[in-house]
Amino acid sequence: MMSISQNVFASALVCTGPHPDLPDEHRIFGSFIGSWDLVVTWYAEDGSIRRQENGEWHFAWVLEGRAVQDVWIVPPRAERQSHPDLYEYGTSLRFFDPALGAWRSTWIGPCQRAVHVFVARKTGRKVVLETTLEDGQRMQWTFSDVTDTSFVWSNCRETESGWVLTQDFQARRRTDP
Hints:
Layout: H1 6-13, E1 34-43, E2 49-62, E3 67-74, H2 77-80, E4 88-97, E5 102-109, E6 114-123, E7 126-132, E8 138-144, E9 150-159, E10 162-173
Antiparallel strand pairs: 1-2, 1-10, 2-3, 3-4, 4-5, 5-6, 6-7, 7-8, 8-9, 9-10
């Protein structure tokens, strides 16, 4: 069996910036490029905190700059050896679809056996990803309060009484390489 070097694979996947064919106004995930430390909070239906963990999130331009991919890890790699619950180590791949006028995004979370397909658009100062789950329930993932050094990501599910926050990430940009 022949194997491929991780460096060869990474250099074929990751690139230094967006493709020139992607107009500036459609680079809605560009501000997330880089590495982020997370505090991840899960909420009960009554809004109380159910669980809180540290995590890490890494974003990069990929596929000749035609897409953005991320890797989301909770708990972070430095804590995974000794942690009793290796919650997730997953990835999203996103690309702009000119025919749709929006980004297509697919999240794959193998630890939780999850695959979600979203459509993402910029809405004001937020980036909102929307999907309908297999059971018919609607879900939104929203990036908000975005600055050069931080952002908030939230996961909301639609209920009969409206949108309910189920999870959020408080993200801080890493200063180390």
